[in-house]
């Protein structure tokens, strides 16, 4: 069928369900360049922070090694002492540097895409073992993009290194004319600044790569119109099933509504098409409220139940339409209809009093209070 044709263009944005499924599979937007740049920059900054400590430790180590006498050199026990001394001098600054790099490497790799853990990503995929598909990946658009990125990275870093060597060339040559410990501190200072500037050049790659990875990830998750329809059917249910459920819900609501009709004080009708069951209970509500309402067949059923239970039926077409269209089930009537409903209820209560105790039969009077314009239907 044409609507199931896989050749349809993927023009629709990924649905929340599609995004959730891709995340469950470990498919999120990632930028390797962001992680690499974060590691390099953290190494450069960390090196700048612990550089003086490392320089001081190197001076101590070199001084110790270069001032050893002949007896110490030939003493094999000195080897253990020398390595212990080197470990003590370099342990703390190197551990601090490694900790900073590891922490930033972790943060840099979760900034884009967040933390995800998926067992599906570990599962072997047979399609990746297909040589033909492997060739397609090697010469596809993604491979071309990665090649372009690699050439761009190499070019940026190579040019940055060239300009930095040119700029610091005389300072590097001057190191050979300095003496300990000054040349060590000066060399580390040059190394730190050159490293920081060189790593900063990768930020240009990151600024381009991060938006590209986000765009590419969204593009890969795009869906065809048919896929969106199929997913909607799977998550929301088929229209015919939903229609059947809504019909059953309406039937249940109608049965519950009809069971409340015998509790009504009056049924206001129009006189055939509309019927509204109204009750006033001072203990439950401050105003009259609607127990049931309906038109045509439902209105007929309400009147039928009312006759069975000897509930007064009052014909007031404008009032019946106004209550029906403005008031929901179990909701109080609008303030604009208070007087009109009060007149009807007063007549019903007088009629009930006459039926119980006799006396003069009340005469039905037309409603004196007009229906407000904003409540007319």
From TrEMBL:
It is found in: Cell membrane. Residues 1-29 are annotated as: Disordered. InterPro entries: FlhB (IPR006136), T3SS_substrate_exporter (IPR006135), T3SS_substrate_exporter_C (IPR029025). This is Flagellar biosynthetic protein FlhB. It holds the Pfam family Bac_export_2. Residues 7-29 have a biased composition (Basic and acidic residues). The lineage of its organism: Bacteria, Pseudomonadati, Pseudomonadota, Gammaproteobacteria, Alteromonadales. It is a multi-pass membrane protein. Required for formation of the rod structure in the basal body of the flagellar apparatus. Together with FliI and FliH, may constitute the export apparatus of flagellin. PANTHER family: FLAGELLAR BIOSYNTHETIC PROTEIN FLHB. Keywords: Bacterial flagellum biogenesis, Bacterial flagellum protein export, Cell membrane, Cell projection, Cilium, Flagellum, Membrane, Protein transport, Transmembrane, Transmembrane helix, Transport. Belongs to the type III secretion exporter family. NCBIfam families: flhB. Its main location: membrane. The chain crosses the membrane at residues 39-66, 90-117, 190-215. It comes from the Bacteria.
